[in-house]
Amino acid sequence: MPKRVMILEDTPDLRTILIDVVESAGHEVAYAGADRDCLQRILAAPPDLIFLDLVMGDIKGGDIYAALRQDPRTKTLPIIVCTVHRQQSVSRKLGKESSDEDPNLQMLFKPFAIAQALMMLRSMLGDPA
User: Fold this and answer.
1) Residue 129: what pLDDT?
2) I want to staple 78 with a disulfide (CB 3.0 to 4.6 A). Which of 24, 30, 49, 57 is the partner?
3) Structural domain span for residue 32
4) pTM for this one?
5) DSSP 47-88
6) How many of the other CB atoms lie within 10 Å of CB of 88?
7) d(CA 18, CA 101)
8) DSSP for residue 6
9) Which residues contact 125 (CB under 8 A, 6 or more apart)?
10) What angle do CA 75, 18, 74 make, to 5 degrees?
């Protein structure tokens, strides 16, 4: 059964790649972009998974992550953080000592292989390979 995936990414080329990854896995892209209404979109109709860029112009992915983890509807929502930052920097931006503290959080470091993004998506959604 197709799942709904949101892609919060401000770089058009990466957004297009992630859209292709989601659609090639047989899932629906519920939203792809990076505007000030991202959080409201998520809370209004929570998707099954989010690809979340940490730096999107004046939008902070860390703030979106924190808000999602505080809301009971999205507390366990699977999130794949897409970033050029490394593990320790990402953990600080997310307010965690390590990403191991959140079993529904994965890190996809840019640049990434399409196969890696697809494998991570399938793993987080429980899809067969």
Assistant:
1) 63
2) 49
3) 4-125
4) 0.89
5) -SEEEEESEETTEEHHHHHHHHHHSTTTTT--EEEEESS-HH
6) 10
7) 25
8) E
9) 3, 25, 27, 48, 49, 78
10) 10
Instruction: Report phi then psi at 51, rounded to 5.
Output: -90, 120
Residue 4 to residue 55: CA distance in whole angstroms: 23
> Can you tell me the distance from the alpha carbon of 129 to that of 55, in angstroms, rounded to the nearest whole number?
30
Residue in 98, 31, 90 with CA at minimum distance from that of residue 62: 90
**Whose structure tokens read 């990466």?**
14
pLDDT by residue for the chain (129 residues), tens digit each? 899 999 999 999 999 999 999 999 999 999 999 888 999 999 999 999 999 998 888 888 888 999 999 999 999 999 999 988 665 455 555 665 445 678 899 989 889 999 999 999 999 999 876
For residue 30, the domain's CATH number is 3.40.50.2300
Number of separate domains in the chain: 1
**How many residues belong to the chain?**
129
Residue 88 identity: Q
CA–CA separation, 67 and 110 (whole Å): 24
CA distance 23 to 3: 10
Q: How far is CA 102 from the centre of its chain?
A: 13
Tokens of 5: 């995936």
